[in-house]
Amino acid sequence: MRAALCLGAVGAQQPLRQWGQQRQQESGRRRAQQQTRLGGRRRNNPFPVPHEWYQPGEFIVGGVLSQSFYNFYEILYKEHPSKNLFDVSYMVPKFYQHVLALVFAVKEVNENPNILPNITLGFHIYDSYYDARMTYRTNLDLLFKMHRFVPNYKCDTQKNLIAIIGGLGHDTTFHMADTLGLYKIPQVRVESDANQVPSFYRMVPNEAHQFVGIIRLLKHFGWTWIGLFAMNDNSGEHFLQTLEPLLSQNGICSAFTQRIPEQLHIDNVDEMHDIALNMYVGIRDNKVTTFIVYGESLAITALRTIIFLSDPTNKENTSFIKVWIFTAQTDFISMGLLKVWNVLLFQGSLSFTIHSQNLPAFKEFLQSVNPSRTQGDGFIKGFWEQAFDCIFPNLDAPMDVSGMCTGEERLQSLPRSLFEMSMTGHSYSIYNGVYAVAHALHGIHSPRSKQRAMGKSERLKLQDLEPWQLHPVLHDISFNNSAGETMSFTDQREVEGGFDIVNIVTFPNRSFLRLKIGWVDSDAADGKEFSINEDMIMWHNDFNQVMPISVCNDYCCAGYQKKRKEGQKFCCYDCTPCPEGKISNQSDMDDCFGCPEDQHANKKKNGCIPKTIKFLSYEEPLGFSLASLALCSSLITTLVLGTFVQHKDTPIVKANNRDLTYALLIALLLCFLSSLLFIGHPGKVTCLLRQPTFGIIFSVAVSCVLAKTITVVAAFMATKPGSSMRKWVGKRLTNSIVLSCSLIEVIICSGWLMTSPPFPALDMHSVMEEIIVQCIEGSVTMFYCVLGYMGLLAIASFIVAFAARKLPDSFNEAKFITFSMLLFCSVWLSFVPTYLSSKGKSMVVVEIFSILTSSAGLLVFIFAPKCYIIILKPELNNREQFLRRRM
Q1: What is the dihedral angle through the alpha carbons of 544, 547, 553, 554, rounded to the nearest 10 degrees?
Q2: 596 and 661 inside one domain
Q3: pLDDT(532) > 50
Q4: Is residue 369 a part of any domain in this protein?
Q5: Fewer beta carbons within 10 angstroms: which end of the chain, N or C?
Q6: Which helix (H) or strand (E) holds 612?
Q7: Domain-embedded: residue 523
Q8: Lowest mean pLDDT among 109-113, 272-276, 585-589, 776-780
Q9: Residue 828: which CATH number?
Q10: pLDDT digits (tens, 9 = 90+) for 266-278
Q11: Domain extent for 740
Q12: What's the pLDDT at 196?
């Protein structure tokens, strides 16, 4: 026997003693009543007479349905002979439905003329007392006796055991397998386990479906911080070893893992207190809202006891308001003093259950159950007394009439924690197990399958059929039960299908409803493996019908990303803002991500907004100002050119090569106008022309300046007697300098356009909030070659002008050219680093400014003094004055 009553809680020793006193009084009353029924005799037999129910037939379906009785007397009294506190059996009334499901299935089979005609199916049902010794004892009873216990001797041929339906517990099933496996008797199980035994046929789906369902359920609701409760046995250990890696793989953490003890001696208060302390701390954790409970139905009993002892007044404590997720092995049960405890604490719980169908005939069958009309049922009196809290009269001894069972009590009046009128999943599995055996027998005895199954042509007599001969047919069986569902086994001898997901709705009268809200079946068609209707869920009232949250810390808002906390599980993290240029548009994101190229992050970093298209346009103030400045400068240059043309015959205009002056002014005019190519939406033509045009025109301008300076030096040298420079002074020298220097720049630009010409492109990355429409140089090397050659000409002009600045002359241009070229070189030397450090339209602005500044410098320093004399000092612009100044 194993009784999993987990008792004790923090600071609850006094309530525990009070509860123990109540339990002692209750036990004393029960013990006195039981001894009265037994004639005042104490049972000293180490193997008490098992509770059983027998109905004869050609074939017997045996049932060892565990967990029906918890016999405290058999273990606790023998371990502690001096203690008489618990020498009484307590039954779990709810499990009586499993017995009735087997009986009902046999009854339907026998009444169905299409299954096993002219053959009566019988049954023999035993209770295992949830004890290994009793399980072995009942196995021997099923195999070898009819009315008397004679081990290893079959004394009655009428009892032809053909198959056995095992109980809900893993241990009970494997204790049965130790004996029954020797005889290869088919064992139909109503619980699932990872271990495989050849003679086992599981009437429940593969437990892997349930693991998948748990993970899908947690991910659906976003519960990542959960508590785990599991029975402290092999099945609980297997559950934890399987589930915990799945949780980690799916981003879910277990806040704690608590094992529920299999057995506690209720008189050991200290032991119960220590166990309750560990469980109590986990339950009171406010961060953990979701608990998963794995284990047989005693797990519920343990949890209810712990919570009761922490709140003996039976008032709901909001610290225990959680979302409980129960596995299919667990059921809500009440027994003993637990019957007076409500189940409101588990309101809104979610439970995986074995799929079942409503059978109206089964409900009618339950309504007909009555102690006076049931023959051979060794369970019903114990069930009736436990369920209705009454005692059947003993005719041999006088008894108080108060609290007597009348037999007229109605099952439908019991709360669901004591008994359910609708067939539960476990009962449905037992029901289908009987039908599977019946259809297998029917298949063997049908004429078409006899030779295939038995390998013989002669007729097989009923009494000659051995249980092991049922395996070939049972493995491949497929049938429709009375509910219209098709039942068949997989290759692993497990029934096909999945699990239902139900919502537990509780009531103050200790009853509850199961509301189906979804299902899980990994073998279903794509898209139907998991389904849940969240709108149907009735959460606990304290949640105000808002989906609970179970996380280690608050979710990270949009615009933030997770940052793991050192030394803690990965489900516990801090929230940090997204890096610059990245966003998170959902809560609780692991990493931020970048926006599409044509969008950028908003200020809150929780969304993307379209980038604005930017280029230096005429409409914006800066573009308009630069364009206006270029036009004004062009106009001034035009006026200067007009002034020089108008005064072309004056000495000051003729003094420094009049044609070269006109060429320089025209080049400067084009330089100012070339800056307009950099303003406006860049197109293929403008991108193709802007840099080469700028380079060639500036080269012409600087070449003209270089020619002017060389002309000054050559003219001075030509004035010396016997000088050979006389033949070089004139238009031939200046034209050669201008043409040759400009031609080199033209060649460079032509090569640039032919090899890798500039083209328009969109720059998505230089400026985060903008899409810059710009011209790509194509070949950066060629671009800097153009600038470098122009700079080389400027430096040469500066050097020559600087050397000739002090030559005697009536109007020496060299000194003015020196200043202009100094400014020109300064502008373009500073242009390179400024241009490289700029982005977007700022690069265009820098280049336009450099063009305008350098052109204006040449115009001002070279032509302003001449214009001053021509316009304001015309008296100085005559031959006599010119010669006088020269002398």
Answers
A1: -80
A2: no
A3: yes
A4: no
A5: C
A6: strand 612-614
A7: no
A8: 272-276
A9: 1.20.1070.10
A10: 556 677 777 777 7
A11: 621-886
A12: 58
Regarding whether 706 and 605 lie in a shared domain, the answer is no
Domain count for the chain, please give it.
2
Round to whole Å and give the CA distance between 396 and 641. 144
Residue 104, both tokens? 């009902």
627 and 604 both lie in a single domain:
no
Shared-domain flag, residues 602 and 682: no
From 610, 642, 670, give the residue that closes a domain: 610
More confident residue, 752 or 655: 752
Alpha-carbon distances of 83 from 80, 283, 337, rounded to whole Å: 6, 33, 20
Contact 307, 283 (CB under 8 A): yes
Q: Are residues 766 and 811 in the same domain?
A: yes
pTM for the full predicted model: 0.68
Tell me the H-state helices in 492-602.
none
Please, what's the b/e burial string for 870-880 (b: 16 or more CB within 10 A of its CB; e: otherwise)?
beeeeebbeee
Q: Please check whether residue 231 is in contact with residue 296, taking contact to mean a CB–CB distance below 8 angstroms.
A: yes
- 10 Å CB burial of residue 660 (0-12, 13-18, 19+) is buried
442's CB contacts (< 8 A; 6+ apart) are 115, 116
Handedness of CA 555, 558, 564, 565 (dihedral sign): negative
- Length of the chain equals 887
Residue 381 structure tokens: 């009196």
Neighbours of 50 (CB within 10 A): 18
- Please, which residues have CB within 8 angstroms of residue 531's CB and are 6 or more apart in sequence? 518, 519, 520
Is residue 221 helix, strand or coil? Answer: helix
Q: Report yes or no: 485 and 431 within 8 Å, Cβ to Cβ.
A: no
Cβ neighbors of 606 (< 8 A, separation 6 or more) are 557, 558, 559, 583, 584, 585
**How far apart are alpha carbons 384 and 377 in whole angstroms?**
12
Q: How many CB atoms sit inside 10 A of residue 378's CB? A: 17
What's the pLDDT tens digit per position in 784-833?
Answer: 899 899 889 889 888 888 887 776 655 567 788 888 888 888 998 898 88
Question: For all residues of the chain together, what is the average pLDDT?
Answer: 79
| pLDDT interval class at 609 (50, 70, 90) | very high
- Asked, for residue 332, whether it belongs to a domain, the answer is no
Rounded-to-integer distance, Cα 478 and Cα 437, Å: 11
CA 653 – CA 662 distance, rounded (Å) = 10
Show the tokens assigned to 796.
């040469």
Q: Give the gyration radius of the chain's Cα atoms.
A: 51
| Pick from 611-625, 701-715, 750-764: least confident | 701-715
Domain C-terminal end among 610, 632, 648: 610
Instruction: Calculate what percentage of the chain has a pLDDT beyond 90.
Output: 25
Split at pLDDT 50, 70, 90, the class of 171 is low
pLDDT at 850 exceeding the cut of 60: yes
Same domain membership, residue 646 and residue 581: no
For residue 724, what are its two tokens? 């050979």
The rounded distance, in Å, linking the Cα atoms of 72 and 266 is 10
Q: Is the distance from CB of 191 to CB of 463 less than 8 angstroms?
A: no
Contact call for residues 91 and 69 (beta carbons, < 8 A): yes
- For residues 747 and 792, membership in a common domain is answered with yes
CB 254 within 8 A of CB 228: yes
Two tokens, residue 725 = 């420079």
Q: Give the SS3 label for residue 53.
A: strand
Could you tell me if residue 529 is inside a domain? no
Nearest Cα to Cα of residue 474 among 191, 207, 184: 184
- Six-digit token string for 623: 């573009």
354 - beta bridge partners? Answer: 499
DSSP character at residue 152 = T
How does residue 95 score in pLDDT terms, banded at 50, 70 and 90?
A: confident
* CA neighbor of 314 nearest in space, from 58, 508, 166: 508
Query: Is the confidence at residue 338, as pLDDT, over 70?
Result: no
722 plus 860 within the same structural domain: yes
